[in-house]
């Protein structure tokens, strides 16, 4: 019997999804035209709604040949719902994420939505922290 692939750590999964999500920016609201240059400005300028979830996990599809990906929604200040998706994540990475979700549902007794929600929070924290670091290391003066 072949050994099952190792379960990725939380940080590995955050890294993988973070990279995919960064590729979605800049993002523009189709309704009001507000431009979000990066993830941090998006997090600050929108209000998250609903759970973040993996559509594959919701369909109990743990090794799809064509993964649908995950989705997290937020409302723009104008009220329009914007979505961040991981539909363009590689099949290999999608399988690693699903592998992590499945293993942790058993190990931690959490639902797939709770687990993807946990990753979403870590990604938000990381984006805001990195934006802070960039701002403080530049010569830009904060507006007051
Ligand atoms: Zn808008």
Quick structural gist:
This protein is α+β, with helices and mostly antiparallel strands and 144 residues long.
Q: What can you tell me about this protein's structure?
A:
The strands form 2 sheets. This protein has a 3-stranded antiparallel β-sheet with strand order 3-4-5. The longest helix has 26 residues, at 112-137. The mean pLDDT is 93. A hairpin with a 6-residue loop joins strand 1 (27-28) and strand 2. The chain has one domain (10-135). Helix 1 (10-22) packs across helix 4 and helix 1 (10-22) packs across helix 5. The chain has helices spanning 10-22, 39-45, 55-58, 91-108, 112-137; strands at residues 27-28, 35-36, 47-54, 70-75, 81-85. The chain is α+β, with helices and mostly antiparallel strands. Zinc ion (ZN) binds next to loops.
Mean pLDDT: 93
The fraction of residues in strands falls at 15-25%
Rg (C-alpha, Å): 17 Å
Query: What is the H-and-E element order?
Result: HEEHEHEEHH
What is the helix tally? 5
Q: Structural class given helices, strands, pairing?
A: alpha+beta
Low-confidence stretches: none
What is the end-to-end distance?
A: 64 Å
Helix content: 40-55%
Provide the number of structural domains: 1
* Main beta sheet strand tally, sense and closure: 3 strands, antiparallel
Number-wise, the strands total 5
């Amino acid at each position: 019997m072949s050994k099952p692939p190792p379960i990725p750590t939380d940080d590995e999964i955050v890294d993988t999804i973070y990279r995919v999500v960064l590729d979605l920016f800049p993002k523009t609201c189709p309704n009001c035209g507000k431009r979000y240059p990066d993830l941090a400005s998006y997090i600050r300028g929108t209000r998250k709604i609903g759970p973040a979830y993996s559509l594959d996990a919701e369909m109990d599809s743990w090794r799809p040949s064509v993964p649908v990906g995950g989705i997290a929604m937020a409302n723009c200040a104008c009220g329009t719902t914007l979505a961040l998706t991981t539909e363009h994540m590689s099949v290999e990475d999608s399988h690693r994420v699903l592998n992590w979700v499945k293993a942790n549902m058993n190990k931690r007794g959490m639902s797939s939505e709770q687990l993807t929600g946990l990753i979403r929070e870590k990604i938000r924290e990381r984006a805001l922290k990195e934006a802070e670091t960039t701002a403080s290391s530049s010569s830009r003066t904060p507006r007051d």
